Amino acid sequence: MKRRAVAVPIVVVLTALAALAALGAGGAAGASGALGASGALGASGAAGAGRAHAAAVCPSGLNGTRDPSNPLALATPPGSNPLAGAESRFFVQTPARGEAAGAIAQLLGVTPPDTESWQTFAAGLISGPEAQQLQSSPSLATKVGLLSLIAQEPETSRFSTYTAGGGPGAIYTQLNKFLCRMYTADPHAIPLLSTYFIDHTGNCPTETASQQATFKRRVSEFALGVGNDPAVIFAEEDAVDTSGCLSKQGLAIRKQQLAYEVDTLAKIPHAVVYLDGGTEDANSAAFAAKILNSAHISKIRGFFLNATHRNWTSKEIAFGEKISRLTHGAHFIVNTANNGRGPALNPHPSRQGVENLCNPPSSGLGPKPTTSTGFPLVDAFQWTAVPGKSSGLCHPGDPAGGVFGVNLALNLAKNANGQLGPGYPSAPY
What we know:
- This protein is α/β, with parallel strands linked by helices.
- Helix content is about 35%, strand content about 10%.
- The chain has helices at about 1-25, 100-110, 120-125, 130-135, 140-150, 170-185, 210-225, 250-265, 285-295, 315-325, 350, 405-415; strands at about 155-160, 190-195, 230-235, 270-275, 300-305, 330-335, 380.
- Strands 1-2-3-4-5-6-7 form a 7-stranded parallel β-sheet, with helices on one face.
- Strand 2 (about 190-195), helix 7 and strand 3 form a beta-alpha-beta unit.
- The chain is globular and about 60 Å long.
- The relative contact order is 0.11.
């Protein structure tokens, strides 16, 4: 019985790794099973037109000519959804930098090279000292298996006011370093990037003229850093949900900021951009659409929803469809990083907010990232936030806000479920 207790997690964790190793470092495109059901493990796929990356050489080999029908410069044109066919190339973060992957490395007591890919690291777990550790420790194998559910998926990298202090040149420099490391680990990767440059500190802040100038500088640095590289960008998460309490003047400033960012990001030749559209249980579709339209949503692909909430995917889809009708058919993405069990509802929503957003223990990973959503207006289910990052010091042992917590991640993985919402079948991982 003891051997069976060990074998169960090892099979779950390592079966897909064996297949991955057999494919080789350059051909792991969508291995199935516990570590690849969504196809997000893939490091392969034909390189974009003109792409050529030597180690730590940036920028990309793409030119600045945008093809509106194929903005990511995929080898096979994507059709109506610009992300179709790209998901096998979305960047799966390295163990040296990734949150869940890094947690696995720490549990195993290893220090991977800075640019070692997740694929190479995961393949190495089927042999050598790490495999022996997993075979000899059922609890360790279980933790590695659960964390791998997160580590194997593309990780959205946030660039914010706080990135390297946010001073002049900080955003550009850090983004350039990130892209160079990414291309060294995976020359064909496409990054998922998010921005958080609007000031959200305090109670409904209205930024000063100098703060607005700083905001514009950071946005411009970010756009310059992406350059001609292909990228999927989630702009200004929480920008809509935090707008409801703003004064008339504050809301006008917020709209101006978003319009500036959209105008700037829309000029990146090989980017597919989505602007934050809020959440169904926080604002009305009309309110969200008004902000999106004023922010020139028609210049980019569309919007993304549920960025900081855990609302059911099905409810966000219905919400997004309403917004789409009010924004001339804009497409959208739903964040499913931690909504597999739906929202944790507060007992007094009028004064507490509808959802308990402070690391509710009932949360679980939601539907796996995919561009095959089954809904014409939904380009993807994607993890626009990193599962396991803390919302704050909510419970004993929780890390500070924005810090990855291993126990938080393990709990999300234990509760993982791909259920879309009430009335849809449960779909445990």
